[in-house]
Structures are given as C-alpha cells and as structure tokens.
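Collaborator request, handled under Task 6.
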Amino acid sequence: MRLRNQNEIELTDDLDDTFSLVYVTCLLTISLFLTLCGNLGIAQETGGGLFSEEALSRGVNDTTDHMFLGSGLSFYDWDKDGWPDISLCKTGMPPRFYHNDQGNFSDVQFNIPNTAEAKNIVWVDYDNDGDADVFLTRSFAPWSLYQNDGNFNFTDVTASVGISQIPGGFLANAKAAAWSDINRDGFLDLYIANYHASDELTRNLFFLNNGGASFSEMAVAVGIDDGYNPSFQPVFFDADMDGWPDLHVINDRDGHKNSFYRNNGNLTFTNESQISGLELDIWSMSNSPGDHDNDGDLDLYVTNRDYDLPTSPGGNFLFQNDGNAMFANVAGDTAVQVWVFSWGAQWIDQNLDGYLDLFVSTSPLNADSLAHSNHFARNNGNGSFEYRPDSGMEDFITKTYCAATGDFDNDGAPDLALTCKAPFRNELWKNNSIGHTYIKISLEGVESNRDAIGSTVRCYSNGVAQLKYTTCGEAYLSQNSQYLIYGLNGESTVDSVTVDWPSGIVDRYYDLQSNQTFHIVEGSSSITVGNSQYSLDPKIKTGPAFIEINTSEFTRIELYDSSGRLVSTTNTEAHSRISTQNLKRGIYVLRWIYKNGISGSQLVTMY
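Structure tokens returned to the collaborator:
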C-alpha cells in the first residue's frame, strides 16, 4: 500500500464571491476494512517454544566452512516482492542466495564471484535507480560493489566508481560495512571497518557518494577514520535525534576502545567517545541500536567476552540513551549481561507487545571449546529483562556468530536467520507467536535516498510510542529485512505513524488498521492496494451551501463537526455533493470512503 504525506491545500469558492476561503489541511485517515485472519488478541506461543528451527524444511540447506570469527548474512528482500530473501557469505565460492517464494526458499545463482573469505554482504541502492545492488567485503582481499541492471545481472563497478583505492597502498582486512546518507544529499555513503592494529595496514575508510556515479574517500577529512584499530562493525544511527546520522564503531581487544562520532551537519564529525559514555575498552562484537524502553531515542547493545580481565570487564553492555547522546550502561546483573561469549545480537519484538526483546548469538572463541545454546531475553516493559528458557533454543547446541531479522513467512511475527560454524548448519528460526496484531512498513525515498536509510519511523498505539530507525548494515556482519514491524499488543488500530525522512520531510498517517503492510513513498499523493491506485488528493469544489467531491471512486461522503457528530452525508452513487447549508462557522472533518473500504479525511474550516 502506498501512502501520501501530510499536505495543505487552499480551496476557493468558484460560484459565489461571498463564500469565504476554505482551508483544508489533510490529516489523512486510512482505514483498511479487510478481513483479518484469526482472532485479534494478545500474542501467544505455540507448543515447543517461542521459536522453532525450520531451515531444512523451508529449503535452506547450508553449512559455513573455513571461516574465521563469523560469516555474514542478509535478510533483505532483493526483488521487493514482500518476502524477505536470504544471502549468505561463503569462503572460496560465490555467496549463496536463497529466494523466498511465499515462505519457502530455493537456491538461485547470480553472477557475483568470490574466491576469498567473504565477510559481509549488503544489498543497497547506491545509485537510486530503484533496484538493489550488492556490496561484499572480504578478509585480506578486495571488497567489491556490484551494480544491478534491474534484471539481476551484475557488473563489478568497484574501480569505476572510485572505491577500490586504499590510501597508501596498504593491505585491507575488511570486516563489516555500513551505509548512510551522512550529508543528506539523497545518496548513500559508505563506511568500511578494517580489522587492524598496525599502521602497516589500512585504517577505516569512508567514501562519500558523489551523486551515484562516483565516490571520494574522506575518512580523515570528515574526522571518522578511527585510527588503526581492529574494527568489527560500524553502525550509523541518530543518537541525539537531530536528523543527522551519527557513527558508532566497535573495536575488538584490549587497548582499542570503541568510538562514537557525532555528526555536525556540515560534513564533519566530532569525536565524543569519552563524553558520551561509549568509550569502552572491551572485546566488542555486536553493534545493535534500538529503543528498548520506548522513550523515543535509540539505545545501544554491545556484546563482549564472558570473563573479566584486569584492564577491562566482561559481560555484555546495554547503553541507555538519555536523549542527548549520553549513554549509561544499565545491563547490570540482568538477563542481558549474558556471561557467555557473545557475537551478533538483534532487537526483536517476539511476542509483538510493543517492546523489543533481545536475541544474542553465542560461540566460544577457541575452536576446541564446547558449543552452547543461544540466548533470548524477554523485555518486561518496565526496563527489565528476563531470560526465557522456553525460547526453543535452550537445548539447541551450536556455534553461532551472526543474526538477522525478517518475517520470512509474512505472518507479522519477526523471525531470525543465523550463520553458524561448521559442522553446525546455518539456521532459520520461525517465531511461533500467534494471535498477535501488528503493522508492517516499508519505505521508498524520493527526495531522500531510495532505500530511505536514515529515516525515523514512530508508531503510536494505545499510549505506547515505538521508534525504529532504518539502517543498512548493523549488529555483526548482518543486514536486516527492510520491512519494519511494530507489535500492537492486541490493538486493532494504530493511532498514528510519523515518518521523518532524511530530506527533512515529515509524513503523518492516522487510524491505520492492524495486520496490514504499508508501503510509504516519500511525498506521494496516492495509495496503492493490490493493482489499484487511489488518489488521496481528490478534486474538491466548494459552494455557498455545498462541498462537491470527485465521486468516481467513492461510495459515501460524510461531514462531522468538531465533537465527532455526523452533520451531513450522501451516497455518492446518487449525489455528488454534500450539503453545508445552515452549518455554523467552525472546524469540520470531511471524510470519504472508497469502494474497497479505504477512507481518507480532511479538516475543513468554514468562516
């Protein structure tokens, strides 16, 4: 479904000069009166655990061999058919691509070669042409950018766009990449984390996108090269909610502290690692932003080793944001501190109650150490978490490094895809939550970058405000599905959704029905349901005693006063006008209902 933005229009009386100006401010109310499958209510779980492992039964049969410290994956829906696909990094062979066909996967081939150890695969529309391109990092081998021609024929454009050059000719050991539009010019920029601790090797690199045709390396110039560190994962997120993406870089091992760079909004960053409270000296593995306490800002979860050292603590860290990019560790002795050697972590609202739960993948550092189960903690909604021994994973012994989230079976409940170390197979965990309510949102930028990376999307329902921020590369060597899922805790409608786009445009939508997927286009003036498109800017004509609306697509027009009382209505199949005769001056709501149940509304002020 494609939704439009809030807009303001002015209507004049063409028939009588004595009729005052009518100002109409669109408040866009969208109601989808579609049959909902199942009963609405609080989410429950089926027997056998909160999750069940279904990789083989769904067609994903893959083992990751010959990898060191993890192998990346993506849950991005590359053909944008509404079903998240899976992409897996491999060593000595091309990445493996599993296409999702209504919840079942089949292995497909793309012309993306690889003979080294691929670490991180990210789908990204770097040139804003509407199709997803591929960026691939490799250990001690060149990274590559593959341009999609729209039919999934890929061309290596790494050299031609200017991102193959490594300053000084040093050797790179690239781990993860993150994309964001740091100067908000509508094109995505690239940051590459290199795992080094010597000036004989290269530092981290930042490539500014010059309009989709070329890039310029500017890490030192903008202030985010991060020196020479064993960097694992960068993530761009708006830490202070000022609209500009900030950067958090996690570094591995003692003596290499994590870094936080605040975006100044002028193509420079300021290193605020120490003052922000994020300058950790630990073995950082996952870089996971999310608003766990629903207070309207993004917190951070950082994983770590499972033991203390004289110079640095063990256990994982949950950094709570005070709203001004000042962070305090609130993990304490809780279910999110974990105390198992941890790698990729994902925020996931498993029971769709509107609060983010936490999944943590675990694997011992030493190859000969015993494997153990992954970790799942339930968010209690009051700032605390509890370990759930009924996750379904507690007896599933494995060595897991990377995790990504996406709703692979389109039932509204977010699932998990994991990469593991051989002989353990890579895993696909279905979320067994049932009876839930949700909305799902995907975004398409117009003035902003096409992928809408760097957008803040707020969902308000029954007093709960949820915030999500769109990223491209996060956690540990991972990319999540582009579909944002908001759990509604049994509510059947959403009060409002607000999208703050990188361009500065703000779109608002009201009264959205639950258990639907909405595709929001920045600044759009139409809504698409299936193959039908409906205008949300209908032609309205006013007279001294009526309002006339284009009736070809509507079944009914209604007019309400400020108290919500229906004061006039008409069946548009019989009449094209709604009477305003004898109405007092004031604010009214004009509402129209499409034949398929979708409705729109506008405020009408009569003078």
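The cover message to the collaborator said: "The chain has a mean pLDDT of 86. The helical segments are 219-222, 273-276. Please let us know whether this matches your experimental observations."
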